[in-house]
């Protein structure tokens, strides 16, 4: 993998200050660089490294904003009770992102500073991400199934109570549960 950026190499207190200043639109990148270097007592940050970091954060913020908008539109359209579908969409987007990364892996692997161990680490993380994604989908499906079964069991009990109280026969109650609840 490539080297850490100058911002990533900053001590935690200076990095936190940089991020706080970067969030303030009234502060210029040049002012941030000057303030960080003054606090450090030496030249740790250049204007170009500051600009690269600011651009990276801007892209990250934009992607988060877009993801939030998509989620809000989805919830508005389908309702907040249908988060299972939103989770499936999110998982599918993650899968697409992982496959996009795999498509670029040859270029990443051929980078001049790429070591074999770094390439193996990337592949391991990709495989682990896919495994965790599959596990999350399986867990969601199991939870959904358990909720559905619980709701059906409660409905069946309600049918039993109501139908018996109304004097229906056991055969009629079973037909109702079979036809309406699918039990």
Please write out the topology:
Elements: H1 6-9, H2 12-23, H3 29-40, H4 47-78, H5 83-103, H6 105-109, H7 116-165, H8 170-181
Q: What's the helix count? A: 8
Query: Structural class of the secondary elements?
Result: mainly alpha
Strand content: under 5%
Span of the ends, CA to CA: 56 Å
Structural notes for this entry:
By secondary structure, the chain is mainly alpha-helical. The protein is 81% helix and 0% strand. It has a domain at 1-78. The chain is built from eight helices and no strands. Helix 3 (29-40) crosses helix 4 (47-78). The mean pLDDT is 82.
In a nutshell, what does this entry contain?
This protein has 183 residues and is an all-alpha fold. The chain has a domain at 1-78.
Task: Fill in the keyword field for this structure.
183 residues; mainly alpha; 8 helices; 0% strand
């Amino acid at each position: 993998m490539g080297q850490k950026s100058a911002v990533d190499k900053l001590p935690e207190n200076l990095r936190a200050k940089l991020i706080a200043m970067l969030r303030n639109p009234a502060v210029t990148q040049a002012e941030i660089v000057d303030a960080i270097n003054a606090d450090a007592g030496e030249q740790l940050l250049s204007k170009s490294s500051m600009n690269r970091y600011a651009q990276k954060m801007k892209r990250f913020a934009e992607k988060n904003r877009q993801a939030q908008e998509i989620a809000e539109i989805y919830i508005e359209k389908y309702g907040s009770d249908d988060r299972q579908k939103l989770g499936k969409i999110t998982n599918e987007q993650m899968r697409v992102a992982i496959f996009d990364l795999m498509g670029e892996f040859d270029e990443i692997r051929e980078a001049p500073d790429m070591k074999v161990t770094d390439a193996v680490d990337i592949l391991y993380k990709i495989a682990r991400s896919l495994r965790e994604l599959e596990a999350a989908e399986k867990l969601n499906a199991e939870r959904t199934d358990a909720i559905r079964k619980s709701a059906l069991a409660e409905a069946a009990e309600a049918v039993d109570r109501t139908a018996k109280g109304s004097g229906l026969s056991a055969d009629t109650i079973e037909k109702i549960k079979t036809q309406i609840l699918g039990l």
